[in-house]
C-alpha cells in the first residue's frame, strides 16, 4: 500500500512569516494509494506535534505501526483503494524535512540559527510540495490537533486548494493554559545542561529535559477518567514480588509514574529537542483570527469548501468550546459546516485511538 518515504527539495526558497526565507527546503513525505489521472482524489493528512509522515507504515526508529494505521488503508475510513493519501513531515521537525538538525549550508546544523516558523509556514511548505507534485486541488485536507491547525490554515490562506476540510480535536488559537504547558516543556529542555544553547549535535542530546517535556505534555493528552481507569493509585510491583510496598523515596512507586517515565524516555530517543522547541512555539503563535484582522469569520470569507469539525467530550486540552468557536465563525462566513462532539474516555488522544464513531464520521465526510 505504501511507497517508501520520499524526500523532495522545493524548487524555490520558502518565504517565512517572520521575514526572510528558507533556502533549499527538503520535505519528507509518504504517499498511499493511486493518484487518479485527473489528480482529483488526493487527500493531504497533516500530523500533530510529535507525529511524522509515517501515518500508515512502521516507524523507522521505533518499529511501531504508523500513527493512524487504524484509519488509513484499503477499506478503512480513509480508503486508499479510493484516495491518494499524502502525509508530509512539517518543516522544523526531525524526520527528514528541513529543521534545526539540518545542514545550514556551512557544514553545520542550523541548531538555534534555524528561523522561527509558524503553522502557516508549515502549510506554505505543504503547498509547495503539492505544486511540485502537480496537485492543484485536494479532495480533502485532514488533520487532528496541530494537524487540524494546519488544515484550518490551508483553508483560510489557500481556499482554492481543498474541497473538504476535516478538523479533529483542534483549535484556532492556543489558550494561556496551552501556552503555559508548552513553556514548561521548553524550559525543561533548556534547563538540561546538555542542551548547550541548542549546540548539542555530535554530542549528548538533552534527553532528560526532553523526556520531562514529553511527560508534562502527555498528561494533557489524556483524561482523568483514562488515567484513573488505567492506573488509579496502583503501586508498582517490586522486584522481590511484593506488591504495594512503598519505598518512601523518589523511585517510581506508582504505576502512573512509571508509565510517564517510559513515555518520556522513549520519546527522547526518536525526537529532536530543538525541533520540540520550534514546533511548540509555532503552535503557540497560531492565531487564525489575528492573521485576518482580528475576526475569525473573515479568515473564511468566500470559502467554497465543505467543513467538518469533531471534538471529544473528555478533551480538556482543546475542549469542545474551541471547536464551537470555529464553527460559529464558519457559520458567520456562510460556509458549509457540520460539527459533532463525540463521547470517548481517552481525552485529547481520542482521535488516535479506537473510537468507532469517529471512523463513521471520517468515512461519511470524505465520501
What does this structure look like?
The chain is of the alpha/beta class and 367 residues long. The chain folds into two domains: 251 residues, 3-Layer(aba) Sandwich (Rossmann fold); 99 residues, Rna Polymerase Sigma Factor, Chain: A. It is 33% helix and 14% strand. The protein is built from ten helices and twelve strands. The strands form three sheets. An eight-stranded mixed beta sheet has the order 1-4-8-5-9-10-11-12, with helices on both faces. A two-stranded antiparallel sheet has the order 2-3. Strand 2 and strand 3 form a beta hairpin. Helix 1 crosses helix 2. It starts with 5 loop residues before the first strand and ends with a helix. The model has no long low-confidence stretch (mean pLDDT 94).
What does the largest sheet look like? 8 strands, mixed
How does the helix and strand content classify structurally? Answer: alpha/beta
Uncertain stretches: none
Number of strands: 12
State the strand order across the main sheet. 1-4-8-5-9-10-11-12
Percent strand = 5-15%
Helix and strand pattern: EEEEEEEEHEHEHHHHHHEHEH
**CATH fold naming of the largest domain:** Rossmann fold
Which architecture name of the largest domain does CATH use? Answer: 3-Layer(aba) Sandwich
Please state the overall shape, judged from the principal axes of the Cα atoms: globular
Tally the helices: 10
Average pLDDT: 94
Measured on Cα atoms, how large is the radius of gyration? 21 Å
User: What is the end-to-end distance?
Assistant: 20 Å
CATH class of the largest domain: Alpha Beta
Helix content: 25-40%
Number of domains: 2
Q: What name goes with the CATH superfamily of the largest domain?
A: Alpha/Beta hydrolase fold, catalytic domain
Function: Transfers an acetyl group from acetyl-CoA to L-homoserine, forming acetyl-L-homoserine.
Catalytic activity: L-homoserine + acetyl-CoA = O-acetyl-L-homoserine + CoA
Active site: 145 (nucleophile), 315, 348
Protein name: Homoserine O-acetyltransferase
Amino acid at each position: 500500500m505504501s511507497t517508501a518515504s520520499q524526500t523532495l527539495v522545493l524548487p524555490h526558497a520558502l518565504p517565512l512569516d517572520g521575514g526572510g526565507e528558507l533556502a533549499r527546503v527538503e520535505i519528507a513525505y509518504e504517499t498511499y494509494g493511486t493518484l487518479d489521472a485527473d489528480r482529483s482524489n488526493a487527500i493531504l493528512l497533516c500530523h500533530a506535534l510529535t507525529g511524522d509522515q509515517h501515518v500508515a507504515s512502521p516507524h523507522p526508529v521505533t518499529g511501531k505501526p504508523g500513527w493512524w494505521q487504524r484509519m488509513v488503508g484499503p477499506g478503512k475510513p480513509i480508503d486508499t483503494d479510493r484516495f491518494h493519501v499524502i502525509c508530509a513531515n512539517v518543516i522544523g521537525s526531525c524526520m527528514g524535512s528541513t529543521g534545526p538538525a539540518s545542514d545550514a549550508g556551512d557544514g553545520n546544523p542550523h541548531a538555534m540559527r534555524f528561523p522561527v516558523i509558524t503553522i502557516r509556514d508549515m502549510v506554505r511548505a505543504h503547498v509547495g510540495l503539492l505544486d511540485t507534485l502537480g496537485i492543484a486541488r485536494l479532495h480533502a485536507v485532514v488533520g487532528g490537533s496541530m494537524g487540524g491547525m494546519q488544515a484550518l490554515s490551508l483553508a483560510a490562506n489557500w481556499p482554492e486548494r481543498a474541497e473538504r476540510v476535516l478538523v479533529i480535536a483542534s483549535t484556532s488559537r492556543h489558550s494561556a493554559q496551552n501556552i503555559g504547558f508548552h513553556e514548561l516543556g521548553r524550559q525543561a529542555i533548556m534547563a538540561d545542561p546538555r542542551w548547550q544553547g541548542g549546540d548539542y549535535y555530535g554530542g549528548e542530546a538533552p534527553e532528560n529535559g526532553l523526556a520531562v517535556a514529553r511527560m508534562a505534555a502527555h498528561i494533557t493528552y489524556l483524561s482523568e477518567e483514562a488515567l484513573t481507569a488505567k492506573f488509579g493509585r496502583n503501586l508498582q510491583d517490586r522486584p522481590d514480588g511484593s506488591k504495594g510496598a512503598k519505598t518512601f523515596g523518589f523511585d517510581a512507586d506508582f504505576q502512573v509514574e512509571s508509565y510517564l517515565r517510559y513515555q518520556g524516555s522513549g520519546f527522547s530517543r526518536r525526537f529532536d529537542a530543538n525541533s520540540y522547541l520550534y514546533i511548540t512555539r509555532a503552535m503557540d503563535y497560531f492565531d487564525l483570527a489575528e492573521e485576518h484582522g482580528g475576526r475569525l469569520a473573515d479568515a473564511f470569507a468566500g470559502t467554497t469548501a465543505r467543513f467538518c469539525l469533531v471534538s471529544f467530550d473528555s478533551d480538556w486540552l482543546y475542549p469542545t468550546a474551541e471547536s464551537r468557536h470555529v464553527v460559529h465563525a464558519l457559520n458567520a462566513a456562510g460556509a458549509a459546516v457540520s460539527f459533532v462532539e463525540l463521547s470517548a474516555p481517552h481525552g485529547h488522544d481520542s482521535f488516535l485511538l479506537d473510537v468507532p464513531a469517529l471512523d463513521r464520521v471520517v468515512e461519511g465526510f470524505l465520501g
